[in-house]
Amino acid sequence: MVKRLIIMLLAFATLTGAARAQEPPAKVSLGLISVPLANVREEPLPKAQIVTQVLLADEVRILEKQEYRYRIAIPGQGDREGWIQQEAVQVPRDKGRSYLKADRQWVVITAPKTFALILDKLGNHNVSLYAGTRLPVQERTADGYKVLFPDRTVAVVASADAEPVRPRNPVLGGVTPAEIAKTARKFQGAQYLAGGITVQGMDTNGLIYTVYRIHGIDLDTDRNALKAKAVKVQKKEL
User: Fold this and answer.
1) What stretches of the chain show up as alpha helix (H) in DSSP?
2) Do 184 and 196 belong together in one domain?
């Protein structure tokens, strides 16, 4: 799948970045994803179509509650909407101000899948993290980054699997076509999953979204929105 999509990935010449921690409207609650990966479905039904996925610490806006599900909008995906299990979302009392504060250093997971070592009173254990996950840094260690989860859990991520989040830029800036292609090739062999954005399962839109997110550029995961921000080029022009 990746080989056929390299040209499509490189065709995004003008892209819009998204700001972090914007204040939500008065009647809308801000939530933070509290699990490594969660499905966002078209309808509030267990087997409804997956429209996209969200990753640990992603910011969402809670628009509606129905039994044990939330209807959310995802600022980092062009305000894409859908339904998610309530247990996957943490609602901070301060609307995320302390966790999402702008002066924090953040890292992004660059490996398709890695493990974070959680440090707590119950003993050290691992939790899965997926490419594109962004987490605030508490401390840089000799072997990696000490990061903070939305529930204030502290974990260590290997430096080989993460790097500082690049400043958001509405254009590609210093990101070269070769970098984009190299990142895309990491997902060679990923299983197909409609609406998926990780190596566990992804579609074309999810691959594009994740590759650019690693490089500090947030995109919508909707096909039409992606096409609207792309410019057609010939292979020889790349």
Assistant:
1) 2-10, 177-185, 204-214, 223-228
2) yes
